[in-house]
Design goal:
With 280 residues, this protein is an all-alpha fold. Helices cover 76% and strands 0% of the residues. α5 packs across α9, α6 runs parallel beside α8 and α9 packs antiparallel against α10. The protein is globular and about 60 Å long. The relative contact order is 0.21.
Length: 280
């Protein structure tokens, strides 16, 4: 992979990982049109780009990340002392992140145990789920902002967001779009719904990266192009940061319908590929 290919791959990863248009759906469409190429090299590079998108979230929400890390250790210490206290907004936010992560972990383990990976590569599943994503995006613009932040959000809202994040393991169903929609449906304020959705992506991206890393370790020797990998990493990090900031702007101005229109177009392409009208 040369530096230009790495640049394009990095840009696509950063943009599709965070904009509500489904990175997994785009990967299935891309593979259907162009093939997978060197799968071992692609897998290793994908892991590397996942680290870049993880860094994007950490940079944009650095204050929240460090607060949650601090609260995790202080809360653990309080529990060991027999004096658990989860009343502060920071502690409640920590609990919401933990709750919201559970369904995704269960779903990920379930997919592996049931050996239904083929579903995650089915072009027709992608096409249908992109339509679902489009509907959710049209709904987001019409939903009123809630009244909850981390200070008083009910834990049932965290379960709702977590369940939608788990369902978003299906290719074509946007993780960021589903969790933002779930947050608004659960009564969260728009700003907090976006913040919670992206903070919740950290353990998911990290977990997916670790699973993919196991595949890299098991693979044969992988050829690495240092320049290309660095270019791809920087492209994914920067485009990821810009994508997150764009979402924060668009949700305030009720412009998520843009993503809905895009997903409908992508769904049409997926259907055309599935029926063999568009092919390699």
């Amino acid at each position: 992979m040369d530096w230009l290919q790495a640049l394009i791959a990095g840009l696509l990863q950063g943009v599709t990982e965070f904009l509500p248009i489904s990175s997994s759906g785009h990967l299935v469409i891309f593979n259907a049109l162009f093939g997978e190429g060197d799968s071992d090299a692609n897998l290793a590079f994908t892991v590397f780009l996942h680290l870049a998108t993880l860094l994007s979230v950490i940079i944009v929400f650095s204050k929240d990340v460090w607060t949650l890390i601090r609260e995790f250790f202080t809360a653990s210490f309080d529990i060991l002392r027999g004096k658990p206290n989860f009343q502060s907004p920071e502690r409640r936010f920590l609990v919401m992140v933990l709750i919201g992560t559970i369904p995704a972990v269960v779903a990920g383990v379930g997919i592996k145990l049931l050996n239904v990976d083929d579903i995650l590569e089915n072009i027709f599943v992608v096409a249908v789920m992109l339509i679902v994503t489009a509907i959710l995006m049209f709904c987001v613009d019409r939903m009123r902002t809630g009244r909850y932040t981390e200070a008083g959000a009910p834990y049932r809202s965290a379960w709702l967001v977590g369940l939608l994040q788990a369902v978003a393991i299906l290719p074509g169903l946007s993780r960021s779009g589903s969790t933002i929609f779930g947050g608004l449906l659960g009564g969260l304020k728009k700003e907090f719904a976006v913040r919670y959705a992206f903070i919740l992506s950290i353990p998911v991206i990290l977990g997916a990266g670790l699973v993919e890393l196991l595949g890299v370790v098991k693979a044969d020797e992988v050829t690495i192009n240092p320049v290309g990998w660095i270019v791809g990493f920087l492209a994914a990090t920067i485009s990821g940061i810009l994508a997150i900031r764009l979402i924060k702007i668009l949700i305030k101005n009720n412009k998520f319908y843009i993503f809905g229109i895009y997903c409908l177009c992508a769904s049409a392409i997926a259907f055309l590929i599935g029926f063999g009208i568009i092919h390699r």
